[in-house]
Amino acid sequence: MKNIGFLSFGHWNPSPQPATRSAADALHQSIDLAVAAEELGADGAYFRVHHFARQLSSPFPLLAAIAARTQRIEIGTGVIDMRYENPLYMAEQASATDFIANGRLQLGISRGSPEQVIDGWRYFGYRPEEGEDASDMARRHTEVLLNVLKGEGFAEPHPQPMFPNPPGLLPLEPCSRGLRERLWWGAGSNATAVWAARLGMNLQSSTLKDDETGEAFHIQQRDQIRAYRAAWKEAGHQRTPRVSVSRSIFALMDERDRAYFGGSGKDGDQVGYLDEKTRAIFGRSYAAEPEKLIAQLKQDEAIAEADTLLLTVPNSLGVAYNIHVIESILKYIAPAMGWRAS
Question: Is this structure's pTM higher than 0.90?
Answer without folding.
Answer: yes
